[in-house]
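Progress note, sequence design subtask.
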């Protein structure tokens, strides 16, 4: 999730779109009433996504196939996404929230209920992705990619280290590294990592447990060089940090062709996540949004996504087209023993604000 592009252009288009939607369409009511046929479009697409999260050919291929233009805008955390769209009128069509954020948006009424008849390539999903706990029956979202959150390590300097959150939280380990560490700029991920290290529930609603995790994060300020969700792999490769907290595929993409680096899932446990495509309830172009989701779900596009960014695909039809070396790489597709110590982040309801508040206090 690196270089930002189209941002100025996107801002202008979004401002105009929001004004037109408010003045002319009535937003949510009209979008909800639209009935879309497979492949139908109703205007250009405004996509709000994690940065550097599509293969370079996907958007041009969709534009050429459907005769529309795609304008992209980017965010670096689910919290940034939620803040931007929760009030409505943001002007986006498709967003790509993570699992727990999908649950929040469904509860808030931010997402449109999908018309499955307009997405025939839903049939390509793996069976274990067709009824997720955060969105039963994929009523409001469709899995896009999935992965883990762990640590990128400079093994050329550190050697074969024990895969543990001690690398970022233990003063005798992290404090003694020949360099510094970076943590994601993400309340749930950072506090979740600390909770894993403490042997506690990463979805806790215990004030006492969450405070213990926040204290651990605060103590780590002495050796934390950055809280970064956009360039952490670059910080690692440049030597500015020797251990970085981040997402599996970003590290693996960055390490391609480089030697002396490894991605590890800490032994205490870590986050597994699914990012999903969804349509906002007040999307200006809901039919184009459905067409885009269906396009991404083709076997060819699913395989291209995984081969570009090294995140595993939820698309069963794509697996026959993915390079076998990627399919067999346990850093991409975790081994069963690794999966046993992975947990999803879940919506904690009103307690979500405590994660954000304590994170801000701990990192300020």
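Output:
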């Amino acid at each position: 999730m690196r270089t930002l592009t189209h941002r100025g252009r996107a801002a202008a288009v979004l401002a105009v779109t929001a004004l037109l939607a408010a003045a002319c369409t009535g937003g949510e009511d009209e979008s909800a009433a639209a009935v879309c046929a497979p492949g139908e479009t109703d205007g250009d697409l405004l996509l709000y996504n994690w940065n550097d999260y599509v293969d370079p050919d996907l958007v041009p291929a969709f534009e050429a196939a459907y005769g529309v233009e795609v304008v992209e805008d980017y965010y670096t955390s689910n919290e940034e996404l939620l803040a931007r769209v929760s009030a409505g009128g943001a002007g986006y069509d498709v967003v790509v929230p993570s699992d727990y954020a999908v649950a929040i948006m469904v509860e808030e009424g931010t997402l449109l209920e999908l018309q499955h008849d307009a997405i025939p390539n839903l049939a390509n999903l793996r069976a274990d992705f067709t009824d997720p706990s955060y969105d039963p029956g994929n009523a409001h979202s469709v899995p896009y990619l999935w992965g883990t959150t762990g640590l990128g390590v400079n093994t050329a300097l550190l050697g074969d280290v024990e895969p543990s959150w001690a690398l970022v939280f233990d003063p005798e380990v992290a404090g003694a590294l020949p360099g510094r560490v970076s943590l994601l700029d993400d309340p749930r991920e950072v506090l979740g990592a600390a909770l894993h290290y403490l042997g506690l529930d990463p979805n806790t609603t215990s004030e006492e447990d969450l405070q213990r995790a926040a204290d651990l994060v605060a103590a780590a300020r002495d050796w934390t060089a950055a809280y970064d969700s956009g360039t952490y792999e670059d910080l690692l490769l440049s030597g500015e940090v020797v251990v970085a907290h981040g997402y599996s595929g970003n590290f693996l993409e960055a390490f391609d062709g480089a030697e002396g680096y490894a991605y590890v899932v800490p032994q205490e446990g870590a986050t597994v996540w699914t990012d999903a495509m969804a349509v906002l309830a007040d999307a200006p172009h809901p039919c184009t949004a459905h067409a885009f989701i269906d396009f991404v779900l083709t076997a060819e596009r699913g395989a291209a996504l995984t081969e570009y960014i090294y995140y595993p695909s939820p698309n069963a039809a794509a697996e026959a087209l993915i390079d076998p070396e990627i399919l067999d790489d346990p850093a991409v597709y975790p081994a069963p023993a690794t999966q046993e110590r992975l947990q999803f982040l879940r919506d904690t309801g009103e307690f979500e604000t405590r994660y954000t508040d304590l994170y801000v206090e701990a990192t300020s």
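Strands lie at 45-50, 70-75, 94-95, 141-154, 181-183, 224-227, 243-247, 261-264, 270-279, 342-343. Work on this subtask will continue into the next period as scheduled.
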